[in-house]
Amino acid sequence: MQVIRDRATLREATTRLRAGGKRLGLVPTMGALHQGHLELVATARQAADAVAVSIFVNPLQFAANEDLARYPRDEAGDLAKLAASGCDLVWMPDVATMYPPGAATLIEVAGPSEGFEGAARPGHFRGVATVCTKLFGQTGADVAVFGEKDWQQLQVVRRVVADLDLPITIIGYPTVREADGLAFSSRNQRLTPDQRALAPMLPAEMRRALTRIAAGAPHEAVLSEAVTALAAAGFVPDYLALVQPDTLLTWTGGPGRLLAAVRLGDVRLLDNMPLG
């Protein structure tokens, strides 16, 4: 496994990996890797001949009130996990390499970026769209794999690729969960033991709500009751919304996606599940 920190070496390595028409898969990450990330790597391996993983804590996607310095980092642990997973290349640029002095281009996305995380974290999806587009161009990857846990992010990335005619295929991988149902997330490690014990109530309430909606109960009332239950248990709900899967517009029937964001202490938990 080759660990690369400069663009010239990256260009040489990706050219070699794609020689002879071979396909390169990319898994973009911000590090602090867990089992969910490793399943994305395995999926990329199935879709391509070689796999690159990027590790870059992107400052552009942190809002002004968010603490970039507190984002968990574990370079040695991440590299050990990737080596064991069969990753071929790890791209680990620093901020100056990713955004050189004088850089003046950002990518603004409307549509699926509006509302929810876009409203709660101003500028977040501008940072996501910009860094992902740069990663796609830097690596020349043929396919990129993203987890469905960040459902809105996945739809934003798909919109950017479609709108800018980027020559890359985006694969979404179902949310990977711990044994008690909590979605794997790098931020879970910041939960206290009591918060960690409470956290699985979020996916449990989401499943309960979806079961009732699928059985015909009015979705507005069901979601209101779920929010009340979560708040009574100690969560601070931000939103619990049933939307159309691709556009994230209000659900009007047919396929749907339940989006959730809550806080436990200073940790923000995201989750989503399909209706049906």
SSE order and pairing:
Layout lengths: L1 E3 L2 H11 L6 E6 L5 H13 L2 E6 L19 H11 L3 E3 L3 H4 L18 H4 L3 H16 L3 E5 L3 H13 L5 E5 L19 H6 L2 H14 L4 H15 L2 E8 L12 E9 L2 E9 L1
Helix pairs in contact: 6-7, 9-10
Q: What is the residue-mean pLDDT, rounded to a whole number? A: 96
The percent range for strand residues is 15-25%
Rg over CA atoms, rounded to whole Å, is 19 Å
- Tell me how many strands there are: 9
Spatial strand sequence of the major β-sheet:
1-4-3-2-5-6
Helix-strand pattern: EHEHEHEHHHEHEHHHEEE
The percentage helix is 25-40%
Number of domain units: 2
Determine the N-to-C terminus distance: 41 Å
Describe the main β-sheet briefly: 6 strands, parallel
Which regions contain 5 or more consecutive residues with pLDDT less than 50?
none
CATH superfamily of the largest domain: HUPs
Task: Determine the number of helices (DSSP H or I, runs of at least 4 residues).
Answer: 10
CATH topology of the largest domain: Rossmann fold
CATH architecture of the largest domain: 3-Layer(aba) Sandwich
- What is the global morphology? globular
- Indicate the structural class: alpha/beta
Class of the largest domain, according to the CATH hierarchy?
A: Alpha Beta
Characterization of this structure:
The chain has 276 residues and is an alpha/beta fold. It has two domains: 2-173, HUPs (Rossmann fold), CATH 3.40.50; 189-275, 2-Layer Sandwich (Pantoate--beta-alanine Ligase, Chain: A,domain 2). It contains ten helices and nine strands. Helix 6 crosses helix 7 (151-163) and helix 9 runs antiparallel to helix 10 (219-233). The longest helix is centred in the middle third of the chain and has 16 residues, at 124-139. The relative contact order is 0.13.
